[in-house]
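Hey team,

Filing this mostly as a record. A colleague (T.K.) asked me to run one chain through the structure pipeline before their review meeting, and I want the input and output archived in the tracker in case anyone asks later how it was produced. No errors, nothing strange. Just documentation.

Input sequence:
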Amino acid sequence: MQEKLKVGIVCPYAWDIPGGVQYHVRDLRAALVREGHDVSVLAPAENDDNLPDYVTSTGRPIAVPYNGSVARLNLGFRSTRRVREWIRNGDFDVMHVHEPVSPGISAVALWAAQGPIVATWHSSMEKSRALQSMFYLAQTVLEKARGRIAVSELARRTLVDHVGGDAVLIPNGVDCAAFAEATPFPGWPGPGKALFFLGRLDEPRKGLDVLLAALPRIAERHPDVRVLLAGPGDADDITKKLPREVADRLTFLGTVSEEDKVRAFHSADVYVAPNTGGESFGIVLLEAMASGTAVAASDLEAFRRVLDNGTAGRHFTNGDPDALADVVNELLADDEGRAEMERVALERAWLYDWGRVTREIVDVYRSVRVPGEKVTEDLRGQFVGRLARNKDSGS
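Output structure:
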């Protein structure tokens, strides 16, 4: 019988603000617990009162431009002290740090700990001054992390090309069973067909503007088509810029619960992913595939890998509304072809099920451990230790 592990997971981004890394950590933790492991999470949070009992907060984050988006990260004296306390009291068999070179508590945890440590890269980045400035942090990661994971080939390439070293490729996971069945929203998708978009409405790289620009051409061929939109953002700011014949087709759900997200996938004929860049994977594509919803996605390299170069979904030219409209129109017009593509996509989604992915991650955990060894606080006088000691002494 395999030994059950006590695992500490570090998430650098605000736990109570939606994001791909947060969802990955949440779902990984749930999958590990199902396998009998004991898992605690460390993360910043806007509101400590609403956190699950397995999350320890390092305090309120601040908005920081990072990798083409705005990340809510946390770094300072108080958060440093909380990281040290969490490590000291955790008695962890393994510490798993996500986004290790992000400027936040992941870096602090790496500086503050020693022992069986695993690091996971999620993001893909072009070579930049930011990456160059993080060179010494990256070297700390390579020194401290005995196991290194990348969720995609693009994330692995970022590590190899810009940091040095390598990582085992273990993709993001999806809980296929959780997406398999749901009751659509009343009246959806309807006889006129329906599309679904999920993402931050006001973030340009999510590509909502491309979908909205394509909508008139889609409506020419499918006059009663409607669009569900889910994600944070001001609906009024969007609709006031659109002609009425476009705006009237839109239904805004706002930020949705997990239950309503699944219902939204089942309320649409096609999930549209018009993202224009900055994606290293595409977990939302897998969620659509696991829901049995057809996918139309931009031809980003990350999306091509998830959709197996178009066998599990259809691609259109990145940033081209006409190309998006052509692909969506073809999918909506071909019920039999769409159903066959959905069948292929569902089979592919199960390759990424959390049950399979978690076993691979636990194998990495076991590979970095020495029997009886624990994660302990590193007191060798590194930067993070000096910061915290100064604070503790009142300086």
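Quick notes for T.K.: DSSP finds 17 helices and 17 strands in the chain. Confidence is low (pLDDT under 50) at residues 384-395.
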